[in-house]
Design goal:
heterodimer, A: Rossmann fold, Helicase, Ruva Protein, domain 3, Zinc Finger, Delta Prime, domain 3, five-stranded parallel sheet, two-stranded parallel sheet, 16 helices, 57% helix, B: alpha/beta, Rossmann fold, 4 domains, 23 helices, 64% helix, elongated
């Protein structure tokens, strides 16, 4: 019985947290980065850092592990995690930074760390303000900025940071970790199940572990069937469906879908555009139209960036799809 | 779905069919008889004054039909009206000699004649060799110069009973029924305006009666926007499209949503829809720029694009177009509770599981799968993320499942509390045996840290946090920040 194998704790953490590596050495697939971060830990000093890379490859984990190794048992009070997409504007971030930087580092450290996730969600103006804030408190605070694309971070910030590019994880790295977790949790991991997890994870360790845990909720034997079941629920193909409806000329249905995606599912206009752009080259349309549509997506993306209304702009984009259909 | 507007289909053919204006009709008959006899009445123009939808236009056309006049309909607010009247007065004169197809000049909205043109028109009336009928809602707003030249007849506001009778007749002809309460409601809201009532009736019958009350309720408040949009979607004239929204009491971004909602019902060819949306997109960009720079003078360009830009975008569906209130507003209001819950959970997932917003949204769906299939595992997530009972219901649905998960959650909380107390007791006992105070303090701290480590830095466990989730993107849409 798997229940007997499991060590029953009073409170089980989500597996993405339970199996998050605590030490830099345990981070998989980023040896080139780990080496340099360990050097910072050893010398007790570091510049501002910029972590760039796709989701689920270890950026947050590296930041957490680094501060553990830098500050030891006092890491918590010396580490502040912020999310740029969550805080209401740069002023809120600035206030929190100020508040955090006001007090001295604990336990003899010479600085504290602020980890700012989704830094690329900040506008150019906000990033300028962030740069000033970084300078203002640079004597006792180091920033670790995390983003998917370093190109979305303004030059002046990039030049003040050591930039680390995290690589997508390869399947072997993900498989090893998933097998380890399945073993610790007393699960039976079938080969098909593992392959399915690797397929849906696309090198994203967090997604792999989340899918594993959700599949484990269905059954202690991890089958490909259950993996695809939970994965398809988590990543419905609404955006692709919406594009297809528009291409078929059914603008009203496409619009309905869009409203559901934006209002009910809570994706932002830009999230939708990113997914549309990803999908556009897989659409069953002539090659030149794929290019034309990519161009249109870019145009409407720019309009959104300019501060236009996402519903109106995306509807207008869908209308462009209707002419590109048949 | 092209449908003839019922207000046209059931317009009275004969003067006798114009309801409840008997006294006024007698005066009109007497006046037209003079013309027919070949003599010219004392007053060459007739002004029908009365509230909207009482039969003024119908009267003119019924009269013309009965006596074989050709109606030259002119809009008084058009600046070129004077020229046109002059031309038709001359043309009519020559035609008159031939003795056929006499012309009847019909000047609608006479209360909208600009003062400058009024004197000129008054002079034309003096020279008229053919009947001129003017119509106006308010007699006193017709320019004085004109009032002096016309014979006035008054049309009464229709009673609710008149309106209901007319509606029932149409329903009979259409072989349709609507619930009696609805019929009464339509009549009540129309307040004597038969045209509005007939339009409402057609809306209700065409669109189905289930959301009828709601549509009617909107009509009450937004009467002018319904009318304005119907006019906007009926014209290909850029200038007219701009003018029809002038009286609409709305901010441009609200109007934008109304136009957005209805546009794809009016245009049906993809290239037209795309062109119309391109205009809307431009309008929206102007609104955004106005908002950002505080230069609200830019609003006028936004309005140009959303009205004229949309009106000239292509070929419109002919006939009756049902105008819908924007569904997005309804969707947003309806889903407000849900969105608040979702955003609150997303925020907790982001904080406790170190995720970006998009990843947290994805994780919500894994959580749903877990909540559905494994209440025990779900309960651990509930404690770890510090979810409220409502949030559990959001993920597991209201019902037995959510209750079970919540029960298990309370159990875990109880055990955690027990463990914490035990640790404290243990430490206190150690302190009582006389060990060094420093060590005890440290031990206590360490013990608490251990629990905290399990909970991964949460605070206020017993008090569910009530922080609201991020709503900016959604409300950008409604209120432009």
């Amino acid at each position: 019985m798997p229940e007997e194998v499991k060590e029953v704790k009073i409170l089980e953490k989500p597996w993405v947290e339970k199996y998050r590596p605590e030490r830099l050495d345990d981070i998989v697939g980023q040896a080139h980065i780990v080496k340099r971060l360990k050097h910072y830990a050893k010398t007790g000093s570091m510049p501002h850092l910029l972590f760039a890379g796709p989701p689920g490859v270890g950026k947050t984990t590296a930041a957490l592990a680094l501060s553990r190794e830098l500050f030891g048992e006092h890491w918590r009070p010396n580490f502040l995690e912020l999310n740029a997409s969550d805080e209401r504007g740069i002023n809120v971030i600035r206030e929190k930074v100020k508040e955090f930087a006001r007090t001295k580092p604990i336990g003899g450290a010479s600085f504290k760390i602020i980890f700012l996730d989704e830094a690329d969600a900040l506008t150019q103006d906000a990033q300028q303000a962030l740069r000033r804030t970084m300078e203002m408190f640079s004597n006792n605070v180091r920033f670790i900025l995390s983003c998917n694309y370093s190109s979305k971070i303004i030059e002046p910030i990039q030049s003040r940071c050591a930039i680390f590019r995290f690589r997508p994880l390869n399947d072997e790295d993900v498989a090893e970790r998933i097998e380890y977790i399945a073993g610790s949790e007393g699960l039976t991991l079938t080969e098909d199940g593992l392959q399915a997890i690797l397929y849906v994870a696309e090198g994203d360790m967090r997604r792999a572990i989340n899918v594993l845990q959700a599949a484990a909720a269905l059954d202690t034997t991890i089958t490909d069937e259950n993996v695809f079941l939970v994965a398809s629920r988590a990543r419905p193909e609404d955006v692709r469906d919406m594009m297809k409806l528009a291409l078929e000329g059914d603008f009203l249905k496409a619009r309905e879908k869009l409203r559901e995606i934006l209002l009910k599912q809570g994706l932002s206009g830009e999230d939708v555009l990113i997914q549309m752009h990803k999908e556009v080259f897989n659409l069953p349309i002539p090659e030149d139209r794929k290019v034309a549509l990519a161009d249109r997506i870019g145009e409407y993306n720019f309009r959104l960036v300019e501060g236009a209304n996402e519903m109106i702009q995306l509807e207008a984009l869908l209308a462009q799809f209707t002419i590109m259909g048949k | 779905m092209t449908e003839v507007p019922w207000v046209e289909k059931y317009r009275p053919r004969k003067l006798a069919d114009v309801i409840n204006q008997e006294k006024a009709k007698d005066a009109i008959r007497a006046w037209i008889e003079e013309w027919l006899k070949g003599s010219i009445p004392k007053k060459r123009a007739l002004l029908i004054a009365g509230p909207p939808g009482t039969g003024k236009t119908s009267t003119v056309y019924a009269l013309a039909r009965e006596h074989h006049f050709e109606v030259i309909e002119l809009n008084a607010s058009d600046e070129r009206t004077y020229e046109k009247i002059e031309r038709y007065v001359q043309a009519a004169y020559t035609m008159d000699i031939l003795g056929q197809h006499r012309k009847l000049i019909f000047l609608d909205e006479a209360d909208n004649i600009e003062p400058g043109g009024a004197r000129e028109i008054a002079k034309l009336i003096d020279r008229a060799r053919n009947p001129i009928i003017l119509a106006a809602n308010r007699y006193w707003e017709v320019p004085r110069e004109i009032r002096a030249k016309v014979q006035m007849v008054n049309y009464k506001r229709l009673t609710q009973r008149d309106v209901i009778k007319a509606l029932v007749r149409i329903l009979h002809a259409e072989k349709k029924t609507v619930p009696k309460e609805l019929l009464y409601e339509i009549a009540k809201r129309a307040s004597g305006d038969l045209r509005a009532a007939v339009n409402d009736l057609q809306t209700v019958v065409t669109g189905g009666t289930e959301d009828a009350m709601e549509v009617l309720a909107y009509r009450d408040v937004e009467k002018s926007v319904f009318q304005a949009l119907a006019q906007l979607f009926a014209t290909d004239n850029a200038r007219k499209a701009k003018l029809v929204v002038l009286g609409v009491d709305m901010f441009p971004h609200e109007l934008l949503q109304w136009i957005d909602e209805n546009l794809p019902y009016v245009y049906y060819r993809p290239e037209d829809i795309a062109r119309a949306y391109e205009a809307l997109s431009r309008a929206d960009i102007f609104l955004g720029r106005a908002q950002r720079t505080g230069n609200y003078g830019l609003w006028k360009y936004a309005t140009d694009m959303m009205t004229a830009g949309v009106a000239v975008a292509g070929v419109k569906k002919k006939g009756f177009v049902r105008i819908y209130p924007p569904k997005t507003i309804k969707l947003l209001t309806e889903s407000k509770g849900e969105r608040t819950l979702r955003d609150s959970i997303v925020k907790k997932v982001m904080a406790e599981m170190h995720m970006a917003r998009l990843e947290a949204l994805e994780t919500l769906n894994y959580l749903r799968a877990i909540f559905e299939h494994d209440p025990e595992m779900a309960a651990h997530f509930v404690v770890y993320l510090d979810l409220t009972e409502k949030e559990v219901e959001f993920l597991a649905g209201k019902g037995e499942l959510a209750r079970r998960i919540w029960g298990k959650t309370l159990n875990i909380h109880k055990k955690l509390k027990g463990e914490r107390n035990q640790l404290k007791e243990h430490v206190a006992a150690a302190g009582a045996t006389g060990k060094g105070e420093e060590v005890t303090e440290e031990e206590l701290k360490k013990a608490e840290d251990e629990i905290e480590a399990v909970e991964e830095g949460k605070t206020g466990k017993e008090e569910p946090s009530k922080k609201k989730g991020k709503q900016a993107t959604l409300f950008d849409f409604l209120g432009k920040k």
